[in-house]
Amino acid sequence: MLFNFSNQAVLITGAAGNLGQAVARAFQATGARLVLVDRATGRLGHVYPDWVNSPNIYLAAPYDVMDPESLQTLVYRVVDYFGRLDVLVNTVGAYRAGQPVHQTPLEVFDTMMTMNARSAFMVSQAVIPVMINQGSGKIIHVAAKAGMAGLASGAAYSASKSAVIRLTESLAAELKDKGINVNCIVPGTIDTPQNREAMPEADKTRWVQADAVADVILFLASPLARAVHGAVLPVTGKG
Predict the structure, then answer these.
(1) Where along the chain do its domains lie?
(2) What separation in angstroms does the CA of 75 have from each of 59, 62, 106, 233, 235?
(3) CATH superfamily of this structure's domain 9-235
């Protein structure tokens, strides 16, 4: 086994999503103790039926990463349950695009900034005090290739993911002297059932697999990445 996260507590937001599931299963295979977060009651038990009664896995729902009180309660319970919090992997996000700026409803811009940028900001705020107190921790955000450069008819999404990148860099600058590594990945199109349905004519061979993205996240959470701070790491497959 290349990675060993035995006795480490790993919090994964968006754990019911396609990437969240791949990340959860990757960490579980390394011996990690998992905190899987979702805002819907009952969904995690449906996604992970074999883990419902596992003492090393906390199916944390319903918790809303947009609500500071919900996040604070979650962190308190994680520390009470596992005694520590070693890794945050934030996979929460949303995608809406298709209109030029002058035709994009303000609601779309607000939703993208809330779901992608604000969620990353808030969940970071929630876990950082615990990690500072421990003197160690890893924070990994999921941005997107679209955050690296503006897209026609995708300004709101692109701007929100760019904000995640800048947040990651700022956090890394603030926390690297406190034993905490903060980095982000920028996937291209991930091969999911939803993307296949939305883009039936696309060349799927150029998309990146969710388990390949999860492998990179494992690396960033591991001691092998101990000297990596503020990285914006493309994980785009052949795209």
Answers:
(1) 9-235
(2) 13, 13, 33, 27, 29
(3) NAD(P)-binding Rossmann-like Domain (3.40.50.720)
